[in-house]
């Protein structure tokens, strides 16, 4: 329930030790998630629990209450200006970015100046589209009129490099007009800028007339395009290829199989997560919305805790989940709750209160029509093993749900609009929720507790491939790459795929999208399995079975487990291994030397003979 030690552990231990036998028995008799949270949340010990000492003690996870500090923003801006004097434009750009992230929302003019400064750094770094974007932003914020000639002239120069000459003409015209308001610019410099701009206009206009007034090229779009599934989609499961079908039986539950023969390398699924959350340690370097790295970040207007890679990602977050999570994010991080618990909350905050109130009428019914990744009902109906859980397990997870419900109250979610004022420290002197939100506690507490249970078995880690500096070896460029865990997410269609210790697919990521491709030929009708973590090449059967039983509550019966396949480090190149095929059940593996001339090999376990000729022919084909 918690990844690092935070105040939640103290809260959980306190509640757990304070519950008497009668209260535990009452809780054990409750049959729904909603009733469990409503009961726990209303207990006197919840109402009297004061979080403030633990929160104040915890120095990591950001400042609470959330606050942007002008002095900090100015410090970064001044350091950026010093780096400009030294000619280090990369450091200057980074420092201006930090200044922008920490600048209070009300300081619009100062923020506009920082953005203009960053646009200058980006221009020197030849990041022309990014420089133009910052110029647009600084003008929208009311960049001082007496300084506007600077950014108009910079915009014109950027557009010239990008061969957008029609736009450059307008930018040089704006430069000339804005010079009239440049009160602090001496007459000589002003005249030189005006003369240069007029000369450029003359050259540009002549060139455009000679070229027949061609249209400007379109702005370069540096946003990574959404990956597309080649070929036809499965009509019922649109995130999957038509090569995949979802079947069901009593033992396996729902699982994926091949509807036709599948070749190695085919893309079988591309899916956007229903919900995903970036790990706290990457909040300053990666986009909160799409998980991409942010070398030129945009910030949140009201908190310094997150960054975004683009205006689009910023808008998505600020008009949905981050509008509510902004004031409570430090509490989430300081609590030490796991990424799956944060996803359980994000699954709520990303949609409106009204959306869920309407959904509750038929939550237990599976939606009719195509299986959509953005339909919460498909998540709700994934396996959660609620009936197999102990009362202590449910109690533990309910403590977390009570905490997350309290955060929803603090965020303004129950009032259907994000709060506009800072959370006062006194507001966390109780874990109880106001009586007027009783129905909300029952509804959303039940949903969050359900989410926590579902995510235990269905969430995926999102990885980023991080590569060290490339090196040249024998005319080949090489580098070492590491897959680094940066976020957690839930992919409803992929969640239907079962596990194998010898998977037939591999998965990787493009931003938030997961891409699943085949790594072996799969015949029509065969199961298409992914891997939940332990793989036979690296981990022994005993370890794999124990891990899967502990984390996912099932006994793996895949082929490597049934036949106890060896790990790579147990394989010996000096001999071959054949399964005993004597006609009677025998689990033994026969080691056969490479120089063996016999085709009939005796099994040391059942004392019968196996003809290895068939296996040798198969190896020949593979080779």
UniProtKB/TrEMBL annotation:
One of its GO terms (biological process) is methylation. This is SET domain-containing protein. GO terms for cellular component: cytoplasm; nucleus. Keywords: Methyltransferase, S-adenosyl-L-methionine, Transferase. It comes from the Eukaryota. Transmembrane segments: none annotated. Residues 242-533 form the SET domain. GO terms for molecular function: histone deacetylase binding; N-methyltransferase activity; protein methyltransferase activity; S-adenosylmethionine-dependent methyltransferase activity. The keyword Methyltransferase applies. Pfam families: SET (PF00856). It comes from Pieris macdunnoughi. Signal peptide: none annotated. The keyword Heme does not apply.
